[in-house]
Amino acid sequence: MTEPTHPAPAGDPDLGLHDPLSDSFPPGFEGKLLFWIAVAFSLYQIAIAAHIVTLSSQVQRALHLGFLMLLCFPLLAALRHRTGPWKIVAWLMAGLGVLVAGYQWVEYVPLMLRSGALNQMDVIIGVIALVTTFAAAWVVMGAALPLVAGAFLVYALFGQYFPGPMQTRGYDFAQVIEQMAYGTEGIYGTPLYVSATYIFLFILFGAFLEKAGMIKLFTDVSLGVVGHKMGGAAKVSVVSSGLMGTISGSGVANVVTTGQFTIPLMKSFGYRPAFAGGVEATASMGGQIMPPVMGAVAFIMAETLGVEYIEIVRAAIIPAILYFASAFWMVHLEAGRRNLRGMAKEDLPSAWAAVREGWYLILPLAVLVYLLFSGYTPLFAGTVGLALTMFLILGASAALGLPQGVLRYIFWIGLALVAASFLEFGNKSLWLGIAALLAWNAISKGGRETIVQVIDSLAEGAKTALPVGVACALVGIIIGTMTLTGAANTFGMYIVSVGENSLLLSLILTMLTCIVLGMGIPTIPNYIITSTIAAPALLDLGVPLIVSHMFVFYFGILADLTPPVALACFAAAPIAKESGLKISFEAVKVAAAGFVIPYMAVYTPALMLQDGGPLSQAIGYLPAVGYIVLKCVLSIGLWGTAVIGWLGKPLPIWMRLLAAAGAFTLIAAVPMTDEIGFALAALFAGLIWLRRDRPAPA
């Protein structure tokens, strides 16, 4: 039923956007060398996370960036089949990146002593650091982010010549280089710190779970639960992508993994290619807001705000559920309108059987959630989750060499006790257990194949982390410019001045900024830029801190679904064999809830389980949570019927307009709109009830 690959139609200009890192490591000596560099990168990160190796924060970030440079340039050149001078340049740039990391390490103490008075060599190395970081971002993500960051760097260097309120006092060249290439305000700032700790570890965690069979488990459970329902193929996409979101925070990666199965499945059951691609893109992007892992931005947000990660999870949980419920509702209505039946139940896997066979795969995720909710740091929780996943993979292989029966039970009980010992002795006991299992597998029948699988996961995790890490380094230049020049205050004051007359206009202005930036740059730099500029302004207008940051986070994600440059939709395009632009328009309809939830949360923070807002003050916190969730669900329901035009039977245009009016008035938070919205919803429900026995028009 499904095809192994889905090449883009030849000559289709809309399908030209592809992930340059989607292919595996190339064959040959160079490919093997890059593979083992990637493995070394992952092992270094694990050693840092497990405190096997202890380095200063500055050196740790520098070595992380050095590994990124060493792997990025030659790997991209090899995957793009560059030869001759290009390959030489790629390895030269990689060497320069390693040189910068080594200089930061060797000169760490002298650099601190020379702070504010760099010598000539410091300036040269700083310039090399900036050049290699810009070049790495260009080859991985294209021109958009380097151009944006370059504009900020130009402003830092020549701001004294800018007009009006944008004018700066002017900064010496060496001062700008020190700000951007040394210390913790530029490329080695908070984003790279988060990449070098939490983000890399959780990417590895997801890579290991995928290798262990988590995708198959999620897909089988989804097929068993909803595959036989009306429009089951699309519901499988929503459910499986939502489940994938719990372990993978990359929307585009989710599209190209689960989408390879779900998009052809939806098409085979009658869904239009554009709609099938839109559903998968919408559901996959939701992975970045689905706890417990969420996207990389969530970790950066927690670090930026100085709050525990669990607070970000708490704010995201209800909106994430509503987001996926909305996508589920939209595909249900589309299936009803087109009379798309579910799959035959006897042809589907049993959800219970899938859970019974693969329940142990959920254990690392369950422990991860427990640790996060118990107040442990994401770094510790991620390290333990990763170690437990390796325990399962290596332990399952070792157990195969034991005879059936009592001996296997004793083995698993002993392994469980070793795994649980981290609560008493810390995570070093886990790594000692893994070392023992590696030795066991190295000498057991079939164990060496499992070790190869573990090594493959290490390499794939490092490759997946490349674009995230490079983006985190480059956006540090933007943050460095903001802190050096105070440019954020200028834009923030403008937003505040607009908001004094209309908070709604400030929100719309912020939303448009996020979407426009998101057309060319990934979610992480988008969030960092807009949260630096706009989120403090929203806070000044009375929007709670986490809500203001979640507002820009949401629209940074939705930019990947919004025309004309919708990265998630273009990733789905070659699989769906449809124009990325057409997929994008369908995705915007399916993701309607994502556009309204941030606005509703600003006016009623209880939607994100935050205190504040007039509703909480009027009726209490818990009643406010229940009320806003009810209102949001009703609005989503009305919007779906308005867009799709079906509820049991096709709806005439005037009823669709009535449903849309009800949805919009429920979203608004001005006097009488709720009352009008509930009245319109009641009127719509009454009309649907009166039409229940009428035959559908031919």
Automatic annotation (TrEMBL):
Keyword Transport: yes
Membrane topology listed for this record: Multi-pass membrane protein
Family annotation (InterPro entries): DctM, TRAP_DctM-Dct_fused
GO terms for MF: transmembrane transporter activity
Record key words, sorted: Cell inner membrane, Cell membrane, Membrane, Transmembrane, Transmembrane helix, Transport
Main localization (coarse): membrane
TM regions (residue ranges): 33-55, 62-82, 88-106, 127-158, 192-209, 316-333, 354-373, 379-399, 406-423, 429-447, 468-496, 502-520, 553-575, 587-604, 624-646, 653-670, 676-692
The keyword Hydrolase appears for this protein: no
Alphabetical list of Pfam families matching this protein: DctM
Gene Ontology CC terms, in alphabetical order: plasma membrane
Source species, domain of life: Bacteria
Subcellular location: Cell inner membrane
Function field: Part of the tripartite ATP-independent periplasmic (TRAP) transport system.
Protein name as annotated: C4-dicarboxylate ABC transporter
Every TRAP C4-dicarboxylate transport system permease DctM subunit domain range: 132-610
